[in-house]
Amino acid sequence: QKEVEQNSGPLSVPEGAIASLNCTYSDRVSQSFFWYRQYSGKSPELIMSIYSNGDKEDGRFTAQLNKASQYVSLLIRDSQPSDSATYLCAVNSYYGNNRLAFGKGNQVVVIP
Amino acid sequence: EAGVTQSPTHLIKTRGQQATLRCSPISGHTSVYWYQQALGLGLQFLLWYDEGEERNRGNFPPRFSGRQFPNYSSELNVNALELEDSALYLCASSLGLAGVSGANVLTFGAGSRLTVL
Fold this sequence. Notes:
The complex is a heterodimer.
Chain A: E1 4-5, E2 11-14, E3 19-25, E4 30-38, E5 45-50, E6 54-58, E7 61-66, E8 71-76, E9 85-93, E10 100-102, E11 106-111
Parallel strand pairs in A: 2-11
Antiparallel strand pairs in A: 1-3, 3-8, 4-5, 4-9, 6-7, 7-8, 9-10, 9-11
Chain B: E1 5-7, E2 10-13, E3 19-24, E4 31-38, E5 42-50, E6 53-57, E7 64-68, E8 74-78, E9 87-94, E10 107-108, E11 112-116
Parallel strand pairs in B: 2-11
Antiparallel strand pairs in B: 1-3, 3-8, 4-5, 4-9, 5-6, 7-8, 9-10, 9-11
């Protein structure tokens, strides 16, 4: 089993709709969870971090964490064409010696 | 405040040569991480340095090596280059050890694209 899995293929959403991205992880002692956005040809940039179970909202973005199910998700509300990018889920385990493992990413395309 | 800076932006080498990539972290950050992003493979963890020491290493052969200097800058060396080493190499920095607030938040540089012919 991969450390961090993002299995969905490219996601196309109409402008103004909600984009939903999912991520599962294998290390039960993982402590820190992140979503990065990467535009084509650019480096990843942090958009959300979440450390405890539940929801965390930041503007149009909501991260959801369920440690019992080893599942973290990202919702993008009122999707804009500027949200078109690849979204990377990243998970850190304190006992993994501070190594941040990334999923392969989900490409989101917002259609005007 | 300057971000994470990497050089060179692009590097073209031939098989068997050596490549050296450099990274300067954000001021105040002591940890430097190296990741490889090859086409279709996502970000693969290479190396983590903190306070001049190698703290963790990913599943890469020994010809991938590096070091961190007293000013916390770092370099990644790839010896005996192979075609499959062609990738974007990303450096990231963060505050120090795990358990410190913000320690696990990585800020990435723009990357160095290595092409091996």
